[in-house]
UniProtKB/TrEMBL annotation:
One of its GO terms (biological process) is DNA restriction-modification system. It holds the Pfam family Eco57I. InterPro entries: DNA_methylase_N6_adenine_CS, MethylTrfase_TaqI-like_dom, N4_N6_ade-DNA_methylase, SAM-dependent_MTases_sf. The keyword Secreted does not apply. This is site-specific DNA-methyltransferase (adenine-specific). CDD domains: AdoMet_MTases. It comes from Polaribacter pectinis. Keywords: DNA-binding, Methyltransferase, Restriction system, S-adenosyl-L-methionine, Transferase.
C-alpha cells in the first residue's frame, strides 16, 4: 500500500534555517498578497504571520486531513484563506494565471516526483503546453510563476535536476525568458530532515517575474554552493562558499539551456564554445534487452558478482567469435553470445555474461513487447561501452564482436582508427569533468554523452595514446591489471589538449 505521505509527497520543511532563509529571500514588507500552493501544515505561513499579522495569504492543499488542520489552525484569521484543491488543475487559479497573475509573492516546497497515474499525466501535459509531467515540481514552479503579478517574487525549494536534465529544458527556457533570477543555492538533500534522494541535490531558487525579455537576458544572478552545513544558508559572509555570477543570456546560449555550475570556468567555456561534439564524431546507442534476463542471460561462473539470480552457461554452447555479426541469431548449437553489461570497469571487460541467441529466440526478441531489440546495426561492432550510471567516475571498456545491454551506451567512432583514443578519453578525468558539468547527477545517458566537446588530437598524441591503450588492453587481458603510468601519460595528454 502506498502511504499517504508518499501519495501527497508530504515531506514538510522541518528545518528552521531553511525556512528562515526562504522567507528572508522574499524580502516582505507586510503589504503583500501571498500564495502558498502546497501548504502542508503551514511551515511557511507561521513565520510570515509572526512578522506581519495582517498579511494576506492564500493557501492551497490537496490532502483533506492536512487541509482541515490548517483550517482550524487559522480559523480566527480572516486574512488567511485555505482551499482544499489540486493546485495543478485548479480552474480558478488557471483563470487567474491566464489574466496575468495577481500575487506579490509565492513560497513553496512542492511535492517532488509526486505520484500520479498516467491519465493524469497526459492531461497535465496538455494543460501545461507539453511541459514534462512526470516530475510534478516543475509544473508547480511554472504555475506559481504564472500566478505572480509583474515584479512578484517567488522562492521554491526543489531538487536541482531542473538545472540540467533534458526533460526540464522547457521550464529552463521559460524561467530564463520570463523572470529575473535572484539566486540559486545548491546543497545536499540530506540537509532536509527525513529526506535523502541520493540522486540529486536540493536547491532554493529565488526569482522575480518580469515581462521585459531584454532586461531578463541582461540580468545576472548568483549560484551559491559548497555549503558545509545547513546553518550557512543565507550567510553571505562565509568565505568557503562558492559564488558564481551568471548572466541569463549566457545560460540561454548553452545547448539545452543548461546551467553550467562548474567552478572551473575553462570547463564551462569549453562546453559553451565547442565547435564539434562527441555526437558529431561518434554514434551513441543504447543496447539490447531480452525482456526476461532471468531465463535468457547466463553467467560464466557463480563467482561473478551479482550472478545469484542467473544460471551458469553451458560452455560447450558459446560462440565467442561473433565477427560474422549474427544479427538474425545462430543456426548451430553454439547459441550463447558474449554480452557486455553495466558495471564500472576500465578498458576491457572479460566475457562473463552470455545471451541466448539462437535464430528462433532472436525472431522472438524482435517481436516481443518486453524485449528491446534496439539499435541492432551496432550489435557485434567495435566500439566503447560506457555504463549508463557511474558511481564515481565515468568509465569505458572496449566492445568487440559482442552484444551490449541496455544499461550501456555503446559509442562507435565514425573514424574507427580513433577507437583507442576515445577509449582513453572516456576513462580520463577530463571527460569526467565535462560530463559532470553537463549533467551533475551520475547519469551518462547518450543525450549527455553526445554533448561532450570533441577536440581532435594531433597525430603524435593519437599515436602515443593508441600505443598505450593497446598495451593496457593486452595487460588487462592477461593479468586483469595494467601499468598505471600508461594511463597517467594518456590522461596528461588529454588534459593538455582540453586545457584542464
Ligand atoms: C513537500 S510537502 C510540503 C509542505 C509544506 N509546504 C512544507 O514545506 O512543510 C507538499 C505538500 O503538498 C501537498 N500536495 C501534494 N500534491 C498537491 C497538489 N496537487 N495540490 C496541492 N497540494 C498538494 C501535500 O499534501 C503536502 O502537504
Amino acid at each position: 500500500m502506498i502511504s499517504e505521505q508518499r501519495i501527497f509527497q508530504a515531506y514538510y520543511t522541518k528545518s528552521e534555517p531553511i525556512v528562515s532563509y526562504m522567507v528572508d529571500l522574499l524580502d516582505l514588507d507586510g503589504t503583500e498578497s501571498i500564495f502558498e500552493p502546497c501548504a502542508g501544515d503551514g511551515v511557511f505561513i507561521d513565520p510570515i504571520l509572526d512578522k506581519y499579522q495582517n498579511i494576506k495569504i492564500d493557501a492551497f492543499e490537496l490532502n483533506e486531513n492536512a487541509c482541515d488542520t490548517l483550517k482550524s489552525k487559522y480559523q480566527d484569521l480572516e486574512n488567511i484563506s485555505i482551499k482544499q484543491t489540486d493546485t495543478l488543475t485548479d480552474l480558478d487559479l488557471e483563470f487567474l494565471c491566464s489574466m496575468g497573475g495577481k500575487y506579490d509573492a509565492v513560497i513553496a516546497n512542492p511535492p517532488y516526483g509526486a505520484w500520479r497515474n498516467t491519465i493524469d499525466r497526459a492531461t497535465l501535459k496538455k494543460r501545461f503546453n507539453g511541459f514534462y509531467a512526470k516530475e510534478s515540481y516543475s509544473l508547480f514552479l511554472y504555475r506559481s510563476i504564472e500566478s505572480l503579478n509583474e515584479g512578484g517574487k517567488l522562492v521554491f525549494i526543489i531538487p536541482d535536476t531542473y538545472l540540467n536534465l533534458n526533460m526540464h529544458k522547457d521550464i529552463r527556457k521559460y524561467i530564463l525568458s520570463n523572470t529575473k533570477i535572484k539566486e540559486i543555492a545548491l546543497f545536499p538533500s540530506s540537509y532536509f530532515p527525513g529526506v535523502n534522494f541520493g540522486y540529486a541535490n536540493l536547491s532554493i531558487i529565488a526569482l522575480e517575474k518580469s515581462s521585459d525579455y531584454k532586461l531578463n537576458l541582461e540580468n545576472t544572478f548568483r549560484i551559491i554552493k559548497d555549503y558545509k552545513s545547513v546553518e550557512e544558508l543565507g550567510n553571505e559572509k562565509i568565505k568557503h562558499l562558492t559564488k558564481l555570477n551568471i548572466q541569463q543570456k549566457n545560460v540561454l546560449k548553452n545547448d539545452g539551456y543548461i546551467f553550467l555550475t562548474n567552478t572551473n570556468p575553462s570547463v564551462s567555456d569549453c562546453i559553451r564554445q565547442a565547435k564539434t561534439s562527441i555526437g558529431e564524431v561518434c554514434d551513441c546507442a543504447t543496447g539490447f534487452y531480452s525482456g526476461n534476463d532471468k531465463d535468457r542471460l547466463k553467467v560464466l561462473s557463480k563467482e561473478i558478482r551479482n550472478s545469484k539470480r542467473y544460471d551458469e552457461v553451458d560452455k560447450e554452447k558459446i560462440t565467442y567469435d561473433c565477427s560474422s555479426r549474427p544479427l538474425d541469431g545462430i543456426e548451430n548449437e553454439q547459441i550463447y553470445v558474449p554480452i557486455v553489461k553495466g558495471g564500472n570497469v576500465r578498458y576491457y571487460k572479460a566475457d562473463n555474461w552470455f545471451m541466448e541467441w539462437s535464430s528462433d529466440i532472436v525472431s522472438f526478441y524482435k517481436k516481443d513487447k518486453k524485449a528491446r531489440y534496439q539499435n541492432s546495426s551496432y550489435y557485434f561492432r567495435k566500439g566503447i561501452a560506457v555504463p549508463m550510471v557511474s558511481s564515481s567516475s565515468i568509465t569505458g571498456a572496449i566492445i568487440e564482436n559482442r552484444l551490449f545491454d541496455q544499461s550501456i551506451v555503446g559509442i562507435f567512432p565514425k573514424k574507427e582508427s580513433l577507437i583507442h583514443y576515445f577509449l582513453a578519453f572516456f576513462n580520463s578525468p577530463t571527460c569526467n569533468k565535462l560530463i559532470r558539468t553537463i549533467n551533475p547527477s551520475t547519469n551518462n545517458s547518450s543525450n549527455y554523452i553526445k554533448r561532450i566537446p570533441f577536440i581532435q588530437p594531433s597525430i603524435e598524441q593519437e599515436d602515443t595514446i593508441t600505443e598505450n591503450i593497446k598495451q593496457i588492453i593486452e595487460q588487462v587481458k592477461v593479468s586483469g591489471d595494467y601499468e598505471i603510468e600508461l594511463e597517467t601519460e594518456n590522461n596528461k595528454m588529454i588534459a593538455e589538449l582540453y586545457g584542464f
